Amino acid sequence: MSFLHKVTARNLFRYKGRMIMTVIGVMGCMSLLILGFGLKRSINGIELIQYESLQKYNLAVSYDQEIDPEAYESYRQDVDSLKIDYGKFYQENFKVKFPAIDQDLTLIIPEDDKELSDYFLLRDRKTKEKIDLPKRGAVITAKLAELKDLKVGDSIEIIDIEDKIHTVEIAAICEMCNGHYLFMNKDYYEKLFGYEFNSNTDFMKLNLDKSDRQKLAAKFTENKAVLSSFDTENAKNIMNKFMYSISKIELIVIVASSTLAVVVLYSLTNINIEERKRELSTIKVLGFYPKEMTMYVYRESFVLTLLGILIGIFVGSILHHSVLKIVEPNVMMFDPSIGIETFIIAGLITFVVSLLVMVIFHKKLKNIDMIESLKSNE
Fold it and tell me: Between helices 210-221 and 69-82, what is the axis angle to 10°?
């Protein structure tokens, strides 16, 4: 180590209180910046992943063939005449018991297993590997598995509208950002429930704008056999409103943490200089140039800032994970990964703030009155 580096090391351990305050201050700023940018990454584009990548249809029409067989045949002719891509599925709503509030669960069964991937992408949440529909057991969504602490090979109890409990074996766990789903093939369904498979929902892929889809959905619902229609655009809008409310929190956290970084570093640097005026005056008398004086102080601030950033990465990751679990609803799952770019941006902001503070104090160091400072008492 050079002489000046030895002096820097001595000063760091000489002023232990100031060292600890600076590290904690920078760590807090860094942690909050990671939280703000991390939340932004975790929720950004969730609705696109859900309703474009995982759910590939944009209109779902539910019907009952037994209400009016003639009306159903008329509906089927209308759908076939449109020459659109659609798949026949069976869909049923269930409940899953929870200590506080029971969660809704949607059962999805394709008429043809090969058609499932055209309308629902089942993939592992971490590896992104495609999951095929098992011959035995069901595929449940990751959020439900997390809430119930389930893994592959376990069983889950689901409750139908008649309050009958059915035990389903878990064969795989798939990614889903919104809602709880259960996927199984029709053979396992018939064996488990004892009913013959009959489709009751068409999932459609329509190359139409929103207004045209709404007109088509309204036309379908006029049919006596059609129970309801669901446009995924409505679900997108609801998710976007929720994401917008969270984005306000992101902005507040980022602005507040950046401001905190300025206040903390400015205050501590100012205290550092005021308490060491005699020391700084002495080295100025000994022939240190203004730039050398600034570096004399800045080396200490740089080391402490770097140390605070490194600790802040660890603390920020824990803070991000904790806050994400608080703001994440029971029916939604955000991306828990933070991303290396989040750490880089947060670190750069903290470092740039530290640099700007030293530029501000460079002028103050130049204007130190050596004679007055050396005359003053300890």
Answer: 160
